[in-house]
Design brief:
The complex is a heterodimer of chains A (111) and B (76). Chain A is of the alpha+beta class and 111 residues long. Chain A has one domain: 3-Layer(aba) Sandwich (Glutaredoxin), CATH 3.40.30.10. Chain A is built from five helices and four strands; from the N terminus they run H-E-H-E-H-E-E-H-H. The mean pLDDT of chain A is 95. The mean pLDDT of chain B is 95. Chain B is globular and about 35 Å long. With 76 residues, chain B is α+β, with helices and mostly antiparallel strands. Helices cover 36% and strands 26% of the residues of chain B. In chain B, strand 1 and strand 2 form a beta hairpin. Classes of the chains: A alpha+beta (111), B alpha+beta (76). The interface between A and B is medium-sized, with 15 and 13 residues.
């Protein structure tokens, strides 16, 4: 396991967050989520039918730790919309149920 | 592992006036569902509310004593 320079990891993460309107850091992939919480996030975004990028933190130990520092948030998955941290799986579900997620996503994709 | 009572105590350590409901999802003492209602959440966004609870449980989460935590927070 190589431990990269923390500053580089943070800028790698920042790039992913800034370059993708909807970015998800999760365990596993869209097709094979490796955790129930990550699966919830993928299912909700699939239901909305919007394009989103994912990063599998299980494939990269540095990003797995670095993302928690990036957002000051201790758990994964983490969802970013338009460069902003939106929350984890519980918050995504709640926003979806209130109809607020659809709104946020539409605004982000239209910008 | 950690008991539901310990989870409740840790949260109340940070939010003494909170109503806390703790459910052990698997019976294994490491997968929890927690509902927290506190006046201190008023006017705060969900991210901030969840951060306060995560902070209260910081040690148990970073050591993986709590492996999974489903969280629901609100103001009364």
């Amino acid at each position: 396991m190589t431990v990269e320079n923390p500053t580089e990891i943070q800028s790698t993460i920042d790039k992913l967050v800034k370059e993708n309107k909807i970015m998800v850091f999760m365990k596993g992939t869209k097709l094979m989520p490796q955790c129930g919480f990550s699966n919830n996030v993928v299912q909700i975004l699939n239901t909305l039918g919007v394009p989103f990028e994912t990063f599998d933190v299980l494939s990269d130990y540095n990003v797995r730790q670095g993302i928690k520092e990036y957002s000051n948030w201790p758990t994964i998955p983490q969802v970013y919309i338009n460069g902003e941290f939106l929350g984890g799986s519980d918050i995504l579900i709640e926003l979806y149920q209130k109809g607020e997620l659809q709104q946020k996503v539409e605004v982000a994709l239209a910008s | 592992m950690i008991t539901p009572e310990q989870v409740e105590q840790m949260i109340k350590g940070e939010l003494p006036d909170a109503q806390v409901q703790v459910q052990d999802l698997t019976g294994g003492g490491d997968h929890y569902q927690v509902t927290v209602v506190s006046p201190q959440f008023a006017g705060k966004g969900l991210v901030q509310q969840h951060r306060i609870v995560y902070d209260a449980l910081k040690q148990a989460m970073s050591t993986e004593a709590i492996h999974a935590l489903a969280l629901k927070t609100s103001a009364p």
